[in-house]
Specification:
This protein has 160 residues and is α+β, with helices and mostly antiparallel strands. The protein has one domain: Alpha-Beta Complex (Nucleoside Triphosphate Pyrophosphohydrolase). Helices cover 32% and strands 31% of the residues.
Length: 160
Amino acid sequence: MTDEWPEPAMYALSAVVYAERGDEILLLKRAEGSALAGQFFLPGGLVEPGELPEDGARRELAEEAGIEIDGELELVGCYPMHVYGYDMLQISYRGTVAAGAAVTISHEHVDQQWVKAADMRALMTDEVIDTIADGDERVLQLVRGVRTDLDRYLKRVAQG
């Protein structure tokens, strides 16, 4: 046995929200100049220093979509990703928004849509993920992480 400890992994922290309205979740289309521009993803972003991850998720949802979660957020999962030159841990939450909540997207996005999570998952085949990644191993790992997280989300929704 050795007294040496391995170098700890260092990650920035990011949080996203499965914002639920009925049986749909909100996706925002990333604007040019952002990571994965042109793709639809969950609202979210960096957790600020000293900020609780759940508070960061709520803040990012409000900043990016102009809506708030009605009540508590439930932790869905966590996965590593690499964007904007940083290794990050992405924490995902789920929560319900008011039925009549109007989405107002930020400058970071160009479109929004409410989709059934199961329909979104059906589209995330290996072939589609390979197309999105376009040979970039980091993007490939990121989108695979998103798919795994989505599977976790769908399992929780099915459990009630």
